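REQUEST FORM: STRUCTURE PREDICTION
Request ID: SP-0412
Submitted by: Lab K.M.
Chain count: 1
Length (residues): 320
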Amino acid sequence: MRNRGREKIINIIFIVYMLIRFIMKLSSQSGNFTNNLIVNILVVAIALIVTIIENFYIILIFIVIKIMRKREYKNQLSKIDYKNEGEYYRDILKGYSPFLLSYIDNFIFEGKRDIIATILNLQLKQVIKIENNTIIKLKEDNNLEESEQYILDNVSNGKIKIADTRELEQKIVKDAQNKELIEIKESAKGKNDKPLKNKLIIAFIISIFIFMILSAIATSINSDLLTTIVLIFGLIFCNPICYIILFIIKYYLNKAKIKRTNKGEEINTKLEGLKNYIQEYSNLKEKNANDILLWEEYLIYSVIFNINDNVIKEMDALFD
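STATUS: Completed
RESULT:
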């Protein structure tokens, strides 16, 4: 999408700008470099800190914009999806669990919010009932999605106990694939590939050895230039934070390879229209879990769309 492309350009511009400012500050401190590696590290560290302080407001503005963009992401999707469509959609989307409807919106598992919406949906299907902050199983339903069944399987003594949400998210993705709502490229599935974290650990260890060798060479030939190069190498490639950042980037690049099918786009377009309708023409944000019989699926959607905080707070007692 165009908005995503613009966001990437903004990110690149910000990184290049900060890098240039850091290099300029480092250059102004070139007279402070010595043959002492510790002193050189301190000079570079001070230059980095000063660069951050001098550009504090630019960094703050960038962070605020990123946070706002993340919060408005769904609304941006809505505008794009409805460029050539109607503004509202009123019909309930049958045959899809709250897990799936929430996931195809932004490819993010929203944790407790999605689980609560699914619990409400299971109650509406009369698979369970909720009494005195306790979940009571009423019957088996062979038509449930794997992710829905996973919730039921993790109800113990009337409470939900989910130790690993990653397993639940994997089941949601699988359900979305089975319903032909999303497709995943082979590279995103991680097939025939070593775990990324193992690769990064190996790279980190190798970088440390290279840094030690280069440091010894720089010390032996007494070169300020080589010492500075080695120092910069160490700050970049021997810094654990860099590898954590690489892991995060790679993780989200893989997630970006998940995309909606034509069917998924159609469902999501209707979902965005339903969100607009609920936001503007209902007072669902004031309802609680006891209103499920009256409002039925609309109350569930209000939880998916993060419109209703009352239900989420009320049902928090169901988690152990």
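NOTES: The chain has two domains: 73-185+260-318, 187-256.
Reviewed by: T.R.
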